[in-house]
Amino acid sequence: MALNNTHFGYEEINKIIGNDPKKIFFLGIGGISMNSLAKVCALRGHTVAGYDRTRTDITDSLEEMGIKVYFESSTEAVANCDALVYTVAMPESDPAYIYAGEHGIPRISRADFLGYIMMGYNSRIGISGMHGKSTTTAIVSSVYRAAGADPTVFGGAEIKGMSSSNIIGGHDVFVFEACEYMDSFLDFYPTTAIVLNIEMDHVDYFHSMEQICNSFTAFMSKSDRVIANIGDINVTDSAKRSGAKIVTFGATGSGADYTAENISFCHGFSSFDIFYRGEKLCRTEMHVPGHHIVTDALAAAAVAHSDGLAPADIARGLAEYTGIGRRMELRGKTAGEADVFDDYAHHPTEIKTTLQAATEMEYKKTVCVFQPHTFSRTAELLDGFADALASSDVDEIILAPIYPAREKNTYGISSEILAEKVREKGGKCTAYDSFEGISEYLKNTLREGDAVFIVGAGDVNRISDMILACPACQD
Fold first, then answer.
1. What are the residues facing 87 on neighbouring strands?
2. CA separation for the pair 357, 365 (Å, rounded)
3. How far is it, in rounded angstroms, from Cα 355 to Cα 374?
């Protein structure tokens, strides 16, 4: 069973950490966010160590900074520490976690500690929503860097050109991905909250739209300003209840403060004008495909312009954005010269958006390999997944076994059941019981001019490595 978030808040954690250097242990230090928190603490003069079960490039980079990394969890490693910071993905049975609790060592969840760390920055921009958080976080980072700022960035996926999901920059601007799962974002302190969309997801925690909207309202109420998607009624209604100043962005004719006008697409890539209350600010072009990129870019432009950044810098920052890992990421080619893409989509809305972008890229044949993520989400959103897959214009849909993550299959759901639903709705869909079977089929059928999109939030990207002509040469 996974651990719960703590909700100590800034003041309580500040009593624990204080102004003097402390010994802080990170449980799950190799994680995307955890390793950057550890590095920030080390740069602030604390003695930092941590545990992760696997040696990776991330743990190597930590050790290069002089941070001790353990690859077996033990009580000895935490015996003299002043605080233990943990990721909720750790099990309750972890020896270090148990030892800290038994010996009065404060245990602080990652989200709670991230909220504490961000309070050291003047401007704190939190990007929230069920979809697009990682992409928009990276786009905001690109825009501010183009304007000469030195933002510190905590994202959820590797930023192309940066070789990391996180950037440790200056102490003025802090850009972060605000995850709603288990209400983690309620531990954060945004000065500006960007809200891209709100809909049903994380059904193992959220049980109604009312609960979700109330959580987002609470998140927005912690900020001075909300950058809200006017095209999403759940966003606008929740924002109105927050008490924060509201700035809106949206489509042509939406009445939003910031709009995208004169949008054109070429092979899936967009160009458009950005207007503020009827006045043209700039024109830009994106180098990442998809209609959704326009919305994400507009949100980034809205917060940047609201902060006083010049339109020319905004346009340049948007154009310089080249993507993040596993978001329509071109990995390379198969031996048969077909293109291989990875994408993280794992919700019906994301699936629909990804496959729309895929078909607009005008390949001879487009194949989608989708791995459903968690039994609860697949069961509760089954019709939505079937509709999204069947209504797409891809030529073929292949389903991998469901990725369980933290769950057991108490729902009686399977990829075969989803495949049958897709076929009932007119889609060509086959469920496989192994990655090996999928990879062999793809290697035998894909040809030059074709493309396969490997889609899902689990380990389905392993299939990409299995079918690339030279995996070591692609990344």
1. none
2. 14
3. 21
Supply the pTM of this predicted model: 0.89
Element (H, E) at 430: strand 429-431
Residue at token pair 């954690």: 13
Neighbours of 284 (CB within 10 A): 23
- What is the rounded CA–CA span in Å between residue 386 and residue 173? 41
pLDDT one-digit tens code per residue, 65-74: 999 999 998 8
Cβ atoms of residues 289 and 269 within 8 Å = yes
pLDDT confidence of 449, banded at 50, 70, 90?
A: very high
Rg of the chain in Å (alpha carbons): 22
Q: Which residues of 2-27 are buried (b: 16+ CB within 10 A; e: fewer)?
A: ebebbebeeeebeebbeeeebebbbb
Q: DSSP string covering 303-340, please?
A: HHHHTT--HHHHHHHHHH---BTTSSEEEEEBTT--EE
Helices 311-320 and 292-306, interaxial angle, to 10°?
A: 140
- Residues 299 and 330 sit within 8 Å (Cβ to Cβ): no
* 43 φ, ψ (degrees, to nearest 5): -65, -25
Q: What is the pLDDT of residues 6-54, one digit of tens each?
A: 999 999 999 999 999 999 999 999 988 899 999 999 999 999 999 999 9
Rounded-to-integer distance, Cα 200 and Cα 347, Å: 9
Q: Strands 258-266 and 269-276, how do they pair?
A: antiparallel
Amino acid code (one letter) for 207: H
